[in-house]
Amino acid sequence: MADFPGIVVAFDLYGTLLSTESIAVKLAEHFGQAKAATIAATWRKYQLEYTWRLNSMNRFEPFSGITQRSLNHALKESGVSLGQSEIGDLMKAYDSLSTFPDVKPALAEIAENLAIRPVVFSNGTQSMVSNSVRHSPDLAPYAQTFHDIIVVEEVQKFKPAPEVYEMLARRVGKEKEQIENVWLVSGNPFDVVGARAVGMQAAWVDRAGNGWQDELVDDDKGRPTAIVKGLDEVVNAIMGYYLK
Question: Residue 53: how many CB atoms within 10 A of its CB?
Answer without folding.
Answer: 13
